[in-house]
Every structure is written in C-alpha cells, then in structure tokens.
Write a structure and sequence with these properties.
This protein has 625 residues and is α/β, with parallel strands linked by helices. The chain has 21 helices and 29 strands. Among the domains are: 135 residues, Rossmann fold; 143 residues, GMP Synthetase, Chain A, domain 3 (2-Layer Sandwich). It has a twelve-stranded mixed β-sheet with strand order 1-2-3-20-21-22-23-19-18-17-16-15, covered by helices on one side. A five-stranded parallel β-sheet has the order 7-6-8-9-10.
Length: 625
C-alpha cells in the first residue's frame, strides 16, 4: 500500500520555497519506504569537474584562504584562486603519477586543515589516486601510535603527508618506515618538501588519468570515529560524492544563490568538514576560509577574529562550537553584525544541540535583525554524508527531515523501534579492505543500516519528516522492561548540569534504575569550593562536599516530573578524563559511550551497588533511598 504526504512549507529566512513532498510505501513486514518526489537532476561523475569549470570561468576568484604561516606584516590571508589551485593540482598530480601511486599505493594525509592539504587531496582526486585523511591526534596526541600503526598496516600507503616534519617525525618513523614522506615545512632531509611536487611540470599523462576516471573510482577513504568499535574505512567514489553534492544543491538552492563563503574549522578527516563543507564552496564557485581557531579554550579567539573579518553566507558547526561562539556573539555587537550580515543558512545537529544553546542563537539572530534558515541534516559518513535534510527550523527537536532526491529510506522494524536504512547512488559501496564488514552493514536488499532509530514527526497529518530516536546499540531496557533513550537523556543531563560537566555517559542496562558516569569540568567545579586549593588534584575536587551538593541539587531539578526512564537516580563523578589512547575519546574529541562503559566496568558496578558506595551521588526524590 502506498500513500503520500505533502510537507512543502515556506522556508524561513532567505530561502525560497523548497518542495519537501514525499511518498511512502508500507510493507507487510512492518517496514516503511520513504522517497522524495523531486527527481534527481544529472550531475558530473568526476569530483574535479567543478574545479575545471571555475578555473576557466572565474580564474581570479578566491577558492581557499588561510592565515599566512611564514613571516609577519604581510596580508591577513594567504589566498589561492581557482586558477592557481588548478595549476597546483596538475603539478602535484604529475608528481603522484611519477611516484607510481595508485589504488594499491594510496596517499595518507596526517595533518590538520590547510591549503596544502587540500591541494594534495584535489590532486589525488584528479588523477585517480585514493587519499586517506586521518586525525592529526593519531600522530600528535597519541603516545604509542597504536591506531596509526593499525591504519598503516591496513592501508599500505605509498606516500604520507604532514604539514611539518618536526611535529610528525616520531609518528611517521613509528608507523610508516617504508612509505615516502612529503611535508609542507621541512627541517631535515628525511622528508621531501611539498614545493618539489608543486614545481613538477605536468604532462599529458595528467589529462589522460583524469579522462580515465569513472564514477565508481575511489576518491578517498574516511575512517569512522570509532564510537561503536574499531574505525571502519568508508570508501567514497567519484559518483557518490558528486551525487550527494547535487542532492544538496537541489535541496537547499538558497545556499548557492550567490557564490558561498565559508569560515570553517570542521576537520577534513571528518565527513562533514572535508566532504560537505569544502564541497559547498567548490560546487558553488565560492570561497573557503580556513578558520585558524577551534572551539576550545585558548583557540576560540582565532575563530572570533576570523569572523570579525570575513562574513560567511553558510555556517556549520558542532553543538560545542556553537556553545563556545555564543557568548562572543552576545557580547560583541560588531562581531554579531558582521557574522549575520549575509548569513543565509546555518546548520547544526538538531539531535545533539543543547536547548539553551539553540535558544541563545535565536536571541542573537533577532538582535542582529537577521533572517537565517536554521536547518538540520541527517546521515552518516557512509551516506555521503547528507541523506536527510529539513528546510524548516527543527528548533530544539532532533528532527532530521526528509530524504534528499534520489535517496530511498527504509524504516525497518527492530524489536519495538524502526531502524533507519539508506539506499541510493550517494551511499558508499563498502569498506576499504574490510569486506567482512559489508555483510553486517547492508541488509538483504542492499540498504545501509545506520544503526539509529527514527520515527515520523506526524505521519497521520502527512508530516513525513523523520525524528531521530537514538542509537539502537546504546539504548537499553531497565529490568522492568522500560526502554531508556540514552541520547535524549544525555542531552537533558548536559542541559541540567550545564557548565559543571564535560560529558555524561548513561548506564543501567539490566538494572532497576538509570545511572550515569559524569566527566566533570574541573575548573567550574573548583570554583564552587573556595577551600579547595589551586593545586588540588581531580580526586580532591570531585570529593568536595560543596561540589557533590551542587550535583545533587541539579540532579533533583533534572529528575523532577520524569518517569523511571527519564530519571538519573545515581551518578559517579569520574576524575580520570577520557583519552584517545584509552579508546574512550574519538579522533573528533567526542566520547565513545560504549568504550567508556567497557573500560570502566568496575565504576559501573560500583555505581549500582547497594548500599551505595561513598562516592556515588544518589537522588533522594520520591523514589530515592
């Protein structure tokens, strides 16, 4: 049986009306198929076709810009035009071919966002050499380079690149003793300067390699962050990337009504920053300014100064990035005016953005007198990454929207919930050198299993937008049979505890009540108790009676009016923070709940012991002990 729902609203802000009409098909097995009525338009089959176009049409327009790394007193931004970029891509491409690099001998990029990084990535794409960007933390933060060695053994790169030789020397020597090494800045003779590649004279071989590219040719491999286990190498083909960029252009044409301008810090070893945000600038003939800062204490100032100088037309960030930016937008009227002066669309992860942050952006948007479309996107690395888009402001709800054109969504029953599954030309063909994972990742019809549960916003009234209902593997049942939605409960806990916490991991599978392991913000906690000396260690801070009382008060407010699945009855303040080396912290600096629960099984056991252990904070509400 099939039916349809028409949800084609006026898009807020500067966006034109966008047709969100979808149709659904109900199956006898309880699954539901959802597709958008809008047809997918034709699109290129090679990623650098857009670069060739803009280099011909607007060769002097800025494509990429970054803060200069050498000298002082020069221009505020080092700018590369489309014409300059194409010339560099052809030279580097020839150098890659000269070195015999190929699918069997790919390029691995170890470094942070920088123009040179992108030039190499585009050159690889242009001549058919897959590239593999990995988190700089694997080289610069991790102490034993275990993860990097594992990646090296799996991928067997023929060449590795780092922005500088010195900071990366230890990692390169430990993990890549046989690979060629190219560095942007060299301080010895063990790495080849990138300038050598840039000075290579391109030949007809570059053009032949480009013309030979097919849609199924691998462009890059992105390794997932490992929140659910060992990282998996997601293959991105030319057709997959080109298709997803076309899907997004059709879904949100307002972003491309003029050449888009981005000021962006999101890491390129991650799909949203490296595939999606860079892609917006490239396909729209726009300009991408590499944010010199990051949304962390001590580096946010670089972001603020960049946003004082450059007004973006599109801005995407993580909830943490939004939270760090918000106080500056509130306090600095000049910054606020510039930031919102031509901002058309702002994207955020609706399922994870704390409500107080989202409300704060509403306030500063009104103060600036701006008309901005706040949107939410759903998907994953394996989906291109954009599989679902809502052109209506989701507010504080985890609403991901409807499928992009050409994407088929299946909601498949798994126990009492519906799992999101995707199929279409923008979905990955599989995992790099890990074929055994494909059987688990795709169902019998070839749909990719996202692992997230979803529901319709209002199916009966024809609102076919999809709402995220959390991870299937992270949600659990209490011993009473009640399901606990860990995603929504974690979000409420982050809101309730506010600045006192860095993160919260929900626990309680098979227990009679919900508990939590809490990673405190030690600076904020120390400020609660003036008797705690400045040199006190973490254990002393979390043991403070005033700190514990503050958490108990906020726990009471958090639990007020909630049922058993929405109450955190007990918590433990963990003085040891999660780290990359322990596997509890992913490369994108997010906490892996599964890794935390596995590694801290003793703390979880302590959490639920009765009578309560001394360091457990209990809620003594209506059902408290």
């Amino acid at each position: 049986m099939s039916c349809s729902g028409d949800s084609s609203p006026q898009v807020p802000g500067n966006s034109p009306t966008v047709d969100e009409a979808c149709e659904i098909e109900r199956r006898s097995d309880g699954s539901i198929l959802v597709r958008r009525r809008m047809a997918l338009a034709p699109y290129p089959h090679r990623c650098t076709e857009w670069l060739l176009r803009w280099a011909q049409e607007v060769p002097h327009r800025v494509f990429m810009a970054q803060r200069p790394r050498k000298g002082a007193g020069g221009p505020a931004w080092e700018e590369w035009t489309y014409g300059m970029t194409l010339a560099a891509v052809r030279s580097i491409g020839q150098a890659l071919l000269d070195r015999g690099l190929s699918v069997e001998r790919p390029v691995m990029i170890l470094s942070e966002n920088e123009i040179e990084n992108q030039l190499l990535a585009l050159a690889c794409s242009h001549v058919g050499v897959p590239y593999i960007p990995v988190a700089p933390a694997y080289s610069l933060v991790a102490e034993d380079h275990t993860q990097l060695k594992w990646l090296a053994g799996l991928c067997r790169p023929g060449l590795v690149y780092s922005s500088g030789a010195g900071p990366y020397r230890s990692a390169v020597r430990a993990a890549f003793p046989e690979a060629g090494w190219v560095a942007g800045l060299c301080d010895g003779d063990d790495a080849t300067p990138l300038d050598v590649l840039l000075q290579t004279r391109p030949t007809a071989a570059v053009d032949r390699a480009y013309e030979a590219l097919t849609a199924d040719r691998a462009v890059k491999v992105l390794f997932t962050s490992g929140t659910t286990g060992r990282p998996k190498g997601v293959i991105f083909s030319h057709g997959m990337i080109c298709c997803n960029r076309q899907q997004f252009m059709q879904t949100l044409p307002a972003i491309f009504s003029e050449p888009p301008v981005l000021v962006d810090w999101l890491p390129w070893h991650h799909t949203f920053g490296g595939t999606f945000c860079v892609g917006i600038a490239l396909i729209g003939g726009g300009s991408f300014y590499i944010d010199p800062g990051q949304p962390v204490p001590g580096r946010i100032e670089g972001t603020i100064q960049a946003l004082r100088e450059i007004a973006p037309t599109f801005y995407g960030s993580t909830p943490g990035g939004m939270a760090m930016l918000l106080p500056y937008l509130r306090a600095d009227a000049a910054l606020r005016r510039n930031f919102f002066s031509r901002l058309t669309v702002m994207n955020y992860g609706g399922a994870l953005c704390p409500p107080h942050v989202r409300r704060g952006f509403d306030e500063v948007t009104r103060e600036a007198g701006a008309a901005v479309s706040y949107i939410s996107i759903g998907g994953s690395t394996e989906c291109g990454p954009c599989a679902l888009v809502t052109t209506r402001d989701p507010g504080c709800e985890p609403i991901m929207g409807v499928p992009v054109p050409g994407m088929m969504v299946k909601l498949a029953p798994v126990e009492s919930r519906l799992e999101l599954r995707f199929k279409g030309p923008s979905v990955t063909p599989g995992y790099w050198k890990q074929p055994e994972l494909n059987q688990l990742a795709f169902d019998e019809e070839g749909f990719f299993r996202l692992g997230d549960a979803a529901s319709f916003v209002d199916l009966d009234r024809g609102d076919l937008r999809l709402r995220l209902e959390g991870r299937l593997v992270e949600n659990f049942k209490l011993i009473t049979g009640t399901w606990v939605n860990t995603g929504s409960l974690r979000l409420r806990a982050l809101e309730g505890f506010g600045s006192l916490v860095r993160d919260v991991v929900i626990a309680g599978e098979g227990q009679s009540e919900v508990g939590a392991l809490v990673f405190p913000n030690l600076d904020a906690c120390r400020a609660l108790d003036q008797t705690v000396p400045d040199e006190a260690d973490a254990d002393r801070i979390v043991a403070s009676a005033r700190v514990r009382e503050a958490f108990e008060r906020r726990l009471g407010a958090l639990n007020a009016g909630q049922g058993s699945a929405g109450r955190i009855m007990r918590l433990v303040l963990e003085s040891e923070p999660p780290t990359i080396d322990s596997g509890e912290l992913t490369a994108k600096q997010s906490v892996s709940a599964l890794a935390v629960l596995r590694r801290r099984a003793a703390a979880v056991e302590e959490l639920f012991q009765d009578p309560p252990m001394p360091r457990v904070i209990r809620w003594r509400g209506s059902n408290g002990a």
